[in-house]
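Hi P.,

Sorry for the delay on this. The queue was packed all week, but I finally got your sequence through. Input first:
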Amino acid sequence: MASSRAYYEHGSSARDYYSQPARREQPDRGQQRRTERKAAPRTEVRMRPRADRALAFNFGYTFFVLVSCAIMIAACMMMLNMEIGINNQQEEIVSLENQIENINNDNEARRIRLENMYSLDEIQNIAMNDMGMVYAKKGQIIYYDSAEEDYVNQVKSVPESK
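Then the structure:
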């Protein structure tokens, strides 16, 4: 019969079927109730002032909470006000950008219209026929050296060529 028994190995999670757990002795229920009744008034007497203080209305704490709430509400209002201001500025920026785009489009259209208004042949025709301009002849062009290369300011008549 000893060979059919299961063996218990220390440290394993297997239960030992043959060992009996130690029983605790339970106190008499009547005795336990009597001790609880005696201990309850002492605890209640000691805890009552603490409970009264915990439930008491504290002006300092209430004032702190009210001030904190007021600061939080003011901060939220300021944030909403700033957000509204930012949104208004963004709308204004978008409208100004649209105006700039429209003005640039108008300028480009006018520039193209001015470029296409007259061709070089039309300008030459108007200059020669309407205003009497003629091409310079061979002896009319005089070349001379200038001290300044940017422009020429004529203060007296140009000398005749030799």
